[in-house]
C-alpha cells in the first residue's frame, strides 16, 4: 500500500512539475505579440510612461542610442524605435515590450530588427561639431573621437553636421 501511495504521489509531482514548464514562453508567443504590436494602431507616449522594467532595460542595454520614439499598442505592448547617437549615424533599433515591461525576444530572423543599419557612410567623412570644430572620421575607430567630444562637452545637446558631399 505504501508503494502505491508513493507511486501516486511521485506521478502527481512529476505531472504538476511538467505542467509548470508548459506555461513558459517558447518565443513563438513573443513573435505573435510583436506582429500584433506592429500591425495595431499605436499611440505616441513618453518613455517615462512605460513600465519601470522597460525603462531599466532601455537604460542598461540601449544607452548608446538617442532620439527614442516610444509607442504603445493598447492592450498589447510597446514599441521603441531608437537612432544611433551623434557619433554613429545610420544605426537604428526597434525593441518591443509586453504590457508588464518584459522585453519581447523574437526568434532569429523573424522581426529581428534589433540594431540594423539604415545606411553606412563611406569614409572619410568630416563632422562639424556644435562649437565649430571639425572631426575627420577616416576609419570605424575614429567615431570614438566624436563620442569623446560629447563626453567633454556634456552641456551640448545639438547634433554635429556632416560636411557635404557625403557618399553613402
Q: How are the SSEs ordered, and which strands pair?
A:
Elements: H1 2-22, H2 28-39, E1 43-45, H3 52-61, E2 65-73, E3 77-84, E4 91-98, E5 116-117, E6 125-128, E7 134-137, H4 143-152, E8 161-162
Antiparallel strand pairs: 1-2, 2-3, 3-4, 4-5, 6-7, 6-8
Structural description of this entry:
This is Lipoprotein. It comes from marine metagenome. The protein has 168 residues and is an alpha+beta fold. It folds into 2 domains: 93 residues, no CATH class; 38 residues, no CATH class. Helices cover 32% and strands 24% of the residues. Strands 1-2-3-4-5 form a 5-stranded antiparallel beta sheet, with helices on one face. A 3-stranded antiparallel beta sheet has the order 7-6-8, with helices on one face. β6 and β7 form a beta hairpin. About 10% of the residues have low confidence.
Gist?
Helix content is 32%, strand content 24%. Mean pLDDT is 78; it is low at 19-27 and 110-116.
Distance between the termini: 79 Å
In what range is the share of β-strand residues? Answer: 15-25%
Q: Give the domain tally.
A: 2
How many strands, which pairing sense, and closed or not: the largest β-sheet? 5 strands, antiparallel
What proportion of the residues is helical, as a percent range? 25-40%
The assigned structural class equals: alpha+beta
Low-confidence spans: pLDDT under 50, at least 5 residues? 19-27, 110-116
Number of beta-strand segments: 8
The whole-angstrom Rg is: 24 Å
Question: What oligomeric assembly is this protein in?
Answer: single chain
H/E topology pattern: HHEHEEEEEEHE
User: Order of strands side by side in the largest beta sheet?
Assistant: 1-2-3-4-5
Please report the number of helical segments.
4
**Outline type:** elongated
Name the average pLDDT: 78
Protein name: Lipoprotein
Organism: marine metagenome
Amino acid at each position: 500500500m505504501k508503494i502505491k501511495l508513493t507511486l501516486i504521489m511521485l506521478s502527481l509531482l512529476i505531472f504538476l512539475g511538467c505542467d509548470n514548464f508548459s506555461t513558459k514562453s517558447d518565443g513563438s508567443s513573443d513573435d505573435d505579440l510583436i506582429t500584433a504590436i506592429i500591425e495595431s494602431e499605436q499611440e505616441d507616449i513618453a518613455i517615462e510612461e512605460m513600465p519601470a522594467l522597460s525603462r531599466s532595460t532601455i537604460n542598461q542595454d540601449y544607452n548608446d542610442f538617442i532620439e527614442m520614439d516610444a509607442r504603445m499598442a493598447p492592450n498589447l505592448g510597446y514599441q521603441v524605435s531608437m537612432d544611433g547617437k551623434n557619433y554613429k549615424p545610420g544605426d537604428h533599433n526597434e525593441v518591443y515590450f509586453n504590457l508588464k515591461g518584459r522585453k519581447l525576444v523574437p526568434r532569429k530572423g523573424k522581426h529581428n530588427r534589433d540594431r540594423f543599419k539604415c545606411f553606412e557612410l563611406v569614409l572619410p567623412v568630416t563632422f562639424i561639431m556644435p562649437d565649430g570644430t571639425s572631426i575627420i572620421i577616416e576609419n570605424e575607430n575614429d567615431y570614438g573621437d566624436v563620442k569623446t567630444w560629447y563626453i567633454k562637452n556634456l552641456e551640448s545637446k545639438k547634433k554635429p553636421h556632416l560636411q557635404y558631399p557625403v557618399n553613402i
